[in-house]
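INPUT
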Amino acid sequence: MTALDVVIMAAGKGTRMKSSMPKVLHQLAGKALVQHVIDTARSLKARNTIVITGHGAELVEPALLAANAADHLQFAHQMPQLGTGHAVQQAVPLLPDDGVVVVLSGDVPLTQADTLKALLDVCGGKQLALLTIDFADPTGYGRIVRSPSGQVHAIVEHKDANAEQRDIHEVYSGIMAVPAKLLKPWLARLDNHNAQQEFYLTDVVKFAEADGVSVVACKITDAAQVAGVNSPTQLAELERAFQQRQAHAFMADGVRIMDPARFDVRGTLTCEQDVEIDVNCIFQGNVSLGQGVKIGANCVIANCTIEAGAVIHPFTHIDGEKLGVTVGEGALIGPFARLRPGAQLAAEVHIGNFVEVKNSTMAKGSKANHLAYLGDATVGERVNYGAGSITANYDGANKHRTVIEADVHIGSNCVLVAPVTIGAGGTVGGGSTITKSTEAGALSVARGKQISIANYKRPEKKPKV
Ligand code: UD1
Ligand code: CA
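OUTPUT
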C-alpha cells in the first residue's frame, strides 16, 4: 500500500462566522472543526498530516499542537491566500514523492474514514480521484464536466461556468486523492487566469487529462460528509447531523434514547446493556454508563463513571473534570443534585435535591437527601446526613477534611467545622456547629439551649392618640 499524506487546508478567514476566533477552531461536538479532520486522518494512519494555516495561524497552530501532542502535526503557512491550489503548493516541500496525497478542508468536519478509503481505492496510487456529489442546487460549487462517454474532463468553478455547465448537478466536494509525484508538477503549472484570479487546485484535472492520467470520480450521496461550515447556522446544522448520527449508532447498539433529536455527546460515551436516556441530556468528556443505568431528563454529565442500576434523576449536573466522579451500583442521584470533581459514591448511596458533593467519598448506603454540602469529606457506610447540613471545609486559606464514620446520624442544619471526625454510630443533634471530634456512639449537641417562657405576651402596638 502506498503511504498516505494528508493536507488540510485551513488558511481561510471564515468571514461569515463573524467571530474573533478562527473558523476552524469553532467547536462541533465539543471538538474544534479541524480536529475532526485531523482525527479522521489519524484513523486512516496518515504518514504525514500537514495543516495549511493563514488567517489566525497564531491561534490555530498552538491550539492544535497542544491538542495533538502525541502526533507529528506539521504546518505550512499560506499568507496571503491566493486560492486552493496556492494553499496546497505551500505543502509541497513537506510532501514525499512516494505517497498518495489526500486534500481535505479544515472546515469540513464530518467526512468519514470509510469514504476516504473508498476514494483511495479509486486512486489506486496511480490516478486522480475526486470525491463528488449531486446537489439539487449546485450554486457556488465547482461542476464536474464529463465527456459524452462519461469520462471526467474538467472541474469548472461556478463563477467561470457557462449556462450549460451551470446546469450540471454533479459537483466537486473539495476532496481529492492523487499521487504526489503527479500532483507536484501539476501544482507548478497552475495559473490564476480565471474569474476569481485565484490559483485553483481544481485545474489539476486539466493537466491530468493532458498528461493522459485517468481522472475518476467517486460519487457519494451523504451531503453531511462534504458539508463545510461557513456560518453559525451551518455549524448548528452539522452539529445536529453529527448528534443524530451518534444517537442512531447508540440506538443500534440497544441504548434507549427517548428522542435522538435531543441528545448530545461532546466526547466519548460508552453504554452497557439496557441504558435509558431521557430528553435533553448532554454528555461531555469521558462518560461510561453501566448496565441498566437510567438518566432522567435535562442532565449534564461530564467525566464520570456510573455503575450498573444507578438512576440519575432529572436536572442533575455531574462534572468530574480532572478527578472524575464515580456513582456506585444502584445509587440514586437527584433530582437537582450536583456532583463535582472527586465525588466517589459507593453502591446504593442516595443524593437528593440541592445536594452538592465535592472531593468526597461516601461508602455504601450513605444518604444525603436534601439541601446539603459535602466537601472534602470521608463518609462511612449507612450514614444519614441531614437536610441543610454542611461541611465547613475551608478556613479561608486551607481546605480540611471531615471524617464521618459508619452509621453516624447527622441531624438537620448542622455545620461540621473541619478538620473534625464524627465517631462511628454517633449522633449529632440538629442545628449543631461541631468544632471538636466526637466519640463513637456519642450524642453531640452544640447549640444554644432552648428556653421556653410560659404565657409569653408579644409587644402590642400603642393606641394612636
Ligand atoms: C472549492 C473548489 C470547488 C468545490 C468547493 C467545495 C477550488 C478552486 N474550488 O471551492 O470546486 O466545489 O471547494 O466546497 O478548489 N483555503 C485556503 N487557502 C486559500 C483558499 C482556500 O486554505 O487560499 C481553504 C479554505 O479555508 C477552505 C478550503 O480551502 O477550508 C476551501 O476553500 P473555499 O473558498 O471554501 O472553496 P472554494 O474555492 O469556494
Ligand atoms: Ca473561494
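end of record. The chain has two domains: 4-226, 234-444.
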